[in-house]
Every structure is written in C-alpha cells, then in structure tokens.
Amino acid sequence: MKINRPLAFFVALLFTAVVGVGVFGTAWNTVSELPENPTDQSNIEGIGMLLFTQYVVPFEVLSIVLLASLIGAIYMAKGEGNQ
Fold first, then answer.
1. 35 Cβ partners below 8 Å, 6+ apart?
2. Sequential DSSP letters for 19-33
3. Which end of the chain has fewer surrounding CB within 10 Å, N or C?
4. How large is the C-alpha radius of gyration of the chain?
5. What pLDDT is recorded for position 31?
6. What DSSP character marks residue 53?
7. Mind listing the pLDDT tens digit for each residue in 11-54?
C-alpha cells in the first residue's frame, strides 16, 4: 500500500505547527514564591486547578499526541501480518 506523500507531508507540517503554537504560545510561568502552606510541598490541588483551567488546551493536545504515538507503536509492533 503506497502512502500519499503530499497528504502525509501536510499532516506532518500541521502537527509541527500545532506543537510550535503550543510551545511558543504558552505563557511559561515560573514560581517566584513558596507555597502558602509549607507543609504541603506537592500543592496537588493547585496543579489540578491550573491543569484544568489555564492549561486545558495544551493538556488536550498532549493527550491526542500521546494517543497517536501509542497507536503508531502498536501498528509498528504488529508487523506485516503474514509471519
């Protein structure tokens, strides 16, 4: 089965553009202060709130990328079929 090269190139270019927009369009905030509660060093609640409010789009894009890579790995591990 021959792959349609222009379509594959377009999909790869689109994927690269989405990753580029995700990397350069995200405001990479740094932590300048210690957490309010020094006994809770993990701050899991704060991470969860940021993940599902401010960073929901990069989270969804990353989940699609990981799903596509998992499907690709399964396809590559499967082989040709008549073995």
1. 41, 43, 46
2. HHHHHHHS------S
3. N
4. 19
5. 63
6. T
7. 889 989 988 888 888 777 766 665 566 566 677 877 888 888 88
